[in-house]
Amino acid sequence: xxxxxxxxxxxxxxxxxxxxGGRDVSEVLVAAGISPALLDDTRARVTADQYTRxxxxxxxxxxxxxMGFGSKPSRRGTFPMMCLxxxxxxxxxxxxxxxxxxxxxxxxxxxxxIVEGDDGVVRFELAxxxxxxxxxxxxxxxxxxxxxxxxxxxxxxxxxxRADFAYPEPAHxxxxxxxFGCPPVFxxxxxxxxxxxxxxxxPVVQDEVTLRRYLRQAPAELLSRRDYGVDLAAQVRRILGxxxxxxxxxxxxxxxxxxxVSAPTLRRRLTAEGTSFRDVREQxxxxxxxxxxxxxxxxxxxxxxxxxxxxASAFHRAFKRWTGSSPGAYRGGxxx
Length: 336
Fold this sequence. Notes:
two-stranded antiparallel sheet, alpha+beta, 7 strands
């Protein structure tokens, strides 16, 4: 499973709560290995590991799992205690209801509910009254957290039917499909995730032993953006990624053949998903380049060759187009 890089928007948004409280966030950025200079470029990206370290540092820095966005802080340890209650439930529906009942004990918590439809689809609805969250950062983080925690509880990825957001599409709207694995709907009546009701009846397969191991990785498993593999674009990205790992550069015709479709059909279906073969390939190359540069264990020349560029100068130009910065700005986490 190929982890994607994260748009710098999410880093800036995550810091807003701490900054609003007058806190100096420079030490948080240092702990995450993120150069402050990257915050000024809207095209900049960070790795999933950097983003995870940023959120963990904010939790510790503020002693607040809501990261400064709520009227009341959610002290560190609140989420793990809720998880401990949830793993002792029979099925996912019971676990979710118990988890939400626990959070209702604390003033200033989000309002969460499940609404069951007649079509076998349920809506996980989230209301954030009392939260100062202009970027909708915490709103979207909580949706993602509950969805992925639910999938972990039952040991089965829960595919989403749709993701509704009660606000206009933002400038980084392209990220939503990557985060939630389904087409987003903006200007909706409410903010909610929809999925098949049958998942609520699936048994909880985790226990206290697996929970301890899971929480040691938090928030990596809960917050890192991953390929869901549901749509065609994710399948194309996976084939391209495996090809690059094996020293190949699969063409659109070769990828189409592996998917048992024609190249025109592949292009047409990608267009219907709002993307293209070129876009998928460019995003993959961008993410692999950023990840390698942050790790700092590969020369720019070797990286350019591995990604299929004929010379380093061509890679430099492409990287500047992708991120707005030179490869050197990302070397070793951009902190050199």
